[in-house]
Amino acid sequence: MASLSDLQRLLAERSAKRGQFTLSSGRESSLYIDARLTTMSPEGLVLIGQLGLQALEQSGWNVQSVGGLTLGADPVAYAIAYASGLSLRSVRAFTVRKEPKSHGTAQLIEGPFVRGDRVAIVEDVITTGGSALRAASAISANGGVVAGILAVVDRNEGGREALQEQGFPVIALTTAADIVARLA
To answer: Rounded mean pLDDT of the chain?
Structure first.
């Protein structure tokens, strides 16, 4: 069974770095969390799939699909979808492109997302909430209903509050402070 402490340990060992960094939000930070080093690993996928699915089941959001802005959200969505396939209730995964395809069907949303789906937007790390808001906007514009935002890590830098101000409930599996507490 997946445990939150195992996920926090893995994030601390593989994904957290101290130094001077510019985050994707443009902010400067002495802590960088490259969650992909965890979310794209076999152990991370197993933990995130099980813990993410459990969090969604406990949320009461009753979602049919999960996804978010590529690239950070992709392994999180796929892990949850895979874990759901091993349970009684499956949840589909999708990806929101940063720009629509310039060929074929010119879609912004890829995968088995269906108009009318109740959706959980997923994120690897929430800092400002900007990526989740972009994904939520794309889903709403394509007929989906955003039930909430699920993040692996909340940096506690205002992103949760920005999302909640837009009416989105937010669940984070862990926080940057929890990961820092486990750094050697």
So the answer is: 95
Contact present, 80 and 90 (Cβ < 8 Å): no
pTM of the full predicted structure?
0.94
- Residue span of the structural domain in which 84 resides: 49-175
Confidence of residue 35 (pLDDT cuts 50, 70, 90): very high
Looking up residue 158, the CATH number of its domain turns out to be: 3.40.50.2020
Residues 6+ away with beta carbon under 8 Å from 84: 53, 90, 91
Cβ-proximal residues to 8 (8 Å cutoff; 6+ apart), any chain: 174, 178, 179, 182
Structural domains of the chain, count:
1
**20 in a domain, yes or no?**
no
Neighbours of 160 (CB within 10 A): 23
Question: Inter-axis angle of helices 42-59 and 73-85, to 10 degrees?
Answer: 70
Q: Is residue 165 part of a domain?
A: yes
Residue 17 lies inside a defined structural domain of this protein: no
